[in-house]
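Section 5: illustrative case.
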């Protein structure tokens, strides 16, 4: 069942970190988006900066950075015709192991959810592979078993030849809470427009004003391979 992404974001004060992947409505672009949110001063003290073909998180005010563990990483990296987007340093795991001929799924078998008790934040990951004017993508979530860190549940969802104007959305938390409740179910099916500015504005304006931190959106032209990227940081 398709959900309205704008409503999904507006009605959840704390989805945490989220990944969207799909195809633009005009069928011309592979689309990916990644956002981060924060409740603590340390989590909110971040910005996205471009780093080669990808991006990384960086402290907005280095003097206020308490613990870079789990919050400073490269959310997006590009390996040949593959774009990797994740909510942690598993971006590097996927990049390095796929560069050694392992698959996306095999790479993630070496990782688990984050070690941030009592939340045990899920690791969410996505990958886009473009090929001859088309593309496939996959999404993954590694999560604790109902908040029990003794068991790790791994799920991978693959999408071949996605439909124009359609994508999927996965995020870390069902909502706010203590501990934070992990995401449940498959990635949600959502609509994706043809205009990157329209999509970027909708995402940013739909995220909770107090908790949102940064947003990355990229359109990859399937005919030329050229990319268009938008980054919005709350901290300026």
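Designed sequence:
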């Amino acid at each position: 069942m398709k959900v309205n992404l704008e409503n999904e974001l507006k009605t959840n004060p704390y989805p945490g970190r989220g990944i969207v992947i799909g195809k633009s409505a005009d069928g011309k672009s592979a689309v990916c988006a990644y956002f981060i949110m924060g409740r603590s001063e340390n989590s909110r003290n971040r910005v996205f900066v471009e780093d080669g073909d990808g991006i990384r998180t960086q402290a907005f005010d280095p003097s206020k950075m308490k613990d870079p563990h789990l919050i400073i990483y490269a959310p997006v990296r590009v390996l040949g015709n593959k774009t990797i987007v994740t909510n942690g340093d598993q971006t590097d795991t996927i990049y390095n192991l796929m560069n050694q001929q392992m698959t996306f799924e095999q790479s993630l078998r070496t990782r688990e959810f984050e070690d941030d008790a009592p939340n045990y934040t899920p690791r969410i990951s996505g990958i886009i592979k473009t090929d001859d004017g088309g593309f496939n993508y996959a999404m993954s979530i590694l999560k604790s078993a109902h908040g029990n860190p003794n068991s790790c549940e791994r799920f991978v969802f693959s999408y071949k030849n996605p439909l124009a104007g359609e994508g999927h959305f996965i995020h870390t938390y069902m909502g706010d809470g203590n501990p934070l409740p992990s995401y449940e179910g498959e990635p949600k099916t959502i609509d994706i427009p043809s205009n990157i500015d329209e999509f970027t504005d909708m995402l940013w304006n739909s995220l909770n004003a107090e908790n949102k931190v940064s947003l990355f959106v990229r359109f990859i032209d399937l005919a030329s391979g050229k990319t268009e990227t938008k980054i919005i940081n709350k901290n300026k």
